[in-house]
Amino acid sequence: PTVVEIPRGAYAEKLVAGHDHTTVLLRSLFSQPSQRGVTDSEGRVMLFGGNSQGQLGNGTLEDKFQPEIMALNHMLKERIVDVGAGGSFTVAVTSKGEVMTTGANDSGQIGLGDALQGTKVPRTIYWLSKSGSTIKSVACGRDHTVLTSMAGHIFTMGKGEHGQLGHGPAERDALAAVASWIARRQQRLAQREGRP
Description:
Distance between the termini: 63 Å
Strand content: 25-35%
Number of strands: 11
Helix content: 10-25%
């Protein structure tokens, strides 16, 4: 084993590994980021390894042999609370319950709805925010993603040919699955309110 260097004043809270990349969720050792002049590492994401599909989120397709902080940390005001790594993609959940993804999307696994198009920089899954769901955690397989919401709902997206999505082997369109869930939810709310 070899020690991987992380930022001073931080510790690794969660580690997840994709096919050929590693994602680390960092936390601060200090209650106040300004203590001892330490840079705030609370909720930062560090990545390294293969980047052939943009899974490191740094805007390139170049592999990184040394850890680097994920680009999305510079765009966000809130911290990252959970991370996932699939075959060639990375998922991060923010403290506001939003989800950001980067990397391969050939099976819809990063939930962007852009059939077969991935991304080299982190992008927010806006349809989740529009559904009114606040996400709290993520888990990933090679070609699929599973999200849980604060309300206890489970969202799945990506390749489902073995039933891993939980909504039928043919269903792999994340937008179709969520649209169906939102329609059912709106129908139940309308029925409660006595609307047709």
